[in-house]
From TrEMBL:
GO terms for molecular function: unfolded protein binding. GO terms for cellular component: cytosol. This is OmpH family outer membrane protein. Keywords: Coiled coil, Signal. It comes from Luteibaculum oceani. Residues 52-101 form a coiled coil. The keyword Cell membrane does not apply. Residues 1-19 form the signal peptide. SUPFAM superfamilies: OmpH-like. InterPro entries: Chaperone_Skp, Skp_dom_sf. Belongs to the Skp family. SMART domains: OmpH. GO terms for biological process: protein stabilization. It comes from the Bacteria.
Length: 172
């Protein structure tokens, strides 16, 4: 009896799933088609490159300090060696802090990305929600972030979302 009830519940659940409408979008494709996102991405890339060059420059200075220390170590007193070592360590810590302040979880790059990209993502979500509601979809998956291994293009609603955003399709 329990097996029969379990089978009926499974069949009932399966038919309920079949009644739902599914679609998917490709958020990477959508974002690449939006000029504001491309501009934001360029700005973020420029910031990142600038900061990375600064970090590399600082590490180069540390490397030069260390080479100088090694070359002069035989001539230095123990106290002078300790001072030089502490200076090198301090400089390394400063660079690590700088790197963390720029690229860390709560760093400037993260904050700038939130500032520039979040409003665009919100607009895409609103358009996606409108497409979903107006077309009667129960679920819309994201092909670029979900793990969908196969998706028939006829269910791709990315272009519909872009049209809802007023973006001309085929910019990239």
């Amino acid at each position: 009896m329990k097996k029969l009830l379990l089978l009926l519940a499974f069949i009932g659940g399966f038919s309920a799933v079949n009644a739902q409408k599914f679609a998917y979008v490709d958020s990477d494709y959508i974002m690449k088609q939006i000029p504001e996102f491309q501009e934001a991405q360029k700005e973020l890339d420029n910031l990142s490159t600038t900061w990375q060059k600064e970090i590399e420059k600082r590490y180069q200075e540390i490397e030069e300090m260390y080479k100088s220390y090694q070359a002069e170590a035989v001539l230095l007193t123990e106290k002078m060696k300790q001072q030089r070592e502490e200076a090198i360590i301090k400089k390394e810590q400063e660079v690590q802090e700088f790197q963390k302040s720029k690229f860390g979880v709560e760093g400037e790059l993260f904050k700038k990305r939130q500032e520039l990209v979040q409003p665009i993502q919100d607009k895409v979500y609103d358009a996606l929600k409108e497409v979903s509601t107006s077309s009667g979809y129960d679920f819309i998956f994201d092909k670029s972030q979900s793990g969908i291994l196969f998706a028939d293009d006829k269910y791709d609603k990315s272009d519909l979302v872009l049209r809802k955003l007023g973006v001309k399709i085929g910019i990239n």
